[in-house]
Specification:
210 residues; alpha+beta; globular
Length: 210
């Protein structure tokens, strides 16, 4: 019985990158389907954050860096300034999703930004990522330049904010359970067990439910 998991994240959110590790560990060898969903913390034309500003410097030193060391995830604070808008990266995610490469693409976008400091707001950078995970680079670039997935990305964002009331990321939805923020592996496993119980109860038949 496959459990569907939706992960709402933004590629410039360090906690979203950190959330990938416990999520993948908790779901390893489990019958789950993980769907990475686009979410923009600061949609264009809102201004994005600057890495040399007090807010990012303080949050990085006091929160992100200690957490990354504790979790064993190598991370840097990228010096791309201001931080990139992520509409192209998310439209690339939707292209990758259509070609069954969303997990690989999402991971490499995070890694390119938080380990290599790449400007993931640029189409040529994203194309290299797409090609590295086995996608057709030319088709990928054409999809982004033509804004083929703009409408779909905007619908997902509207659904997240208006229907699901998502205001922060990462937000992980496991069945009917919603985990907001960065959660340890144990919490994700607990939510997954609950979703499995719910699914079994939904499909059981009267007194035969256990």
């Amino acid at each position: 019985m496959t459990i569907h998991i939706k992960v709402y994240s933004d590629f410039v959110c360090p906690y979203c990158y950190l959330a990938e590790t416990p999520l993948l560990k908790a779901t390893e060898d489990k019958d789950v389907e993980i769907e990475w969903m686009p979410y923009e913390l600061r949609p264009y034309p809102q201004e994005t954050l600057r890495p040399d500003a007090d807010y990012l410097q303080r949050s990085w030193q006091e929160s992100v860096q200690p957490l990354s060391k504790k979790m064993g995830v190598d991370m840097i604070l990228p010096d791309v300034s201001p931080q990139p808008h992520t509409f192209y990266a998310h439209e690339g995610l939707l292209f990758a999703k259509r070609n069954n490469k969303e997990k690989e693409y999402a991971h490499l976008v995070f890694k390119s930004f938080y380990q290599n400091g790449k400007d993931i707001g640029k189409i040529d950078v994203l194309r290299k990522i797409a090609e590295e995970v086995g996608l057709d680079g030319k088709q990928f670039q054409q999809a982004l330049e033509s804004r083929e997935f703009k409408g779909e990305r905007e619908r997902y964002l509207k659904e997240a904010t208006e229907d699901l009331n998502i205001t922060a990321v990462p937000t992980i939805i496991i069945g009917e359970r919603v985990l907001k923020g960065l959660h340890p592996q144990a919490n994700i496993e607990r939510a997954l067990r609950g979703a499995i119980r719910d699914a079994k109860f939904e499909f059981c038949d009267g007194d035969e439910c256990e």
